[in-house]
Amino acid sequence: MAERRFNPRMHKRISVHFGPEEATSIGHTDDMNADGFFIRTVTVQPPGKKLIVILQTDDGANIRLAAQVRWAKQVSSGMIRSFKGGMGVRILHFESGEAEYRALCEKMKGN
Question: CA 55: distance to chain centroid?
Fold first, then answer.
């Protein structure tokens, strides 16, 4: 399959809370770029679903945004460490923390 991303992905693990109406499910990021990221989780939503997402960075910042699921792969909780299960999401808009998210992406590019 041809790569459709314009921004390269960077590997970064950040704690994530998400859900369609409230951010009650948990996971963590895996691949990230300025346009979106992969949420590694056993609680997946179907492609097209809009989510509220809260990222909690190592320095204590809470980044809140709306995202849309682009693809999902369901993996059982016993297999999540062995297989990459979760969802790829595209950022729709930020509710708070956009500057922090962009700074994080720039910092990861520099490493």
Answer: 8
Residue bearing tokens 């179907």: 46
**Confidence (pTM):** 0.84
Question: Quick check: helix, strand or coil at residue 69?
Answer: strand
pLDDT digits (tens, 9 = 90+) for 70-108: 999 887 666 666 667 899 999 999 999 999 999 988 887
Please state whether 43 falls in left (phi above 0), alpha (psi between -120 and 50) or beta: beta
List, for residues 48-61, the tens digit of each pLDDT value.
999 999 999 888 88
DSSP H or E stretch at residue 105 = helix 98-110
Give kind and range of the element (H or E) at residue 51. strand 50-56
Q: Is the pLDDT of residue 109 over 60?
A: yes
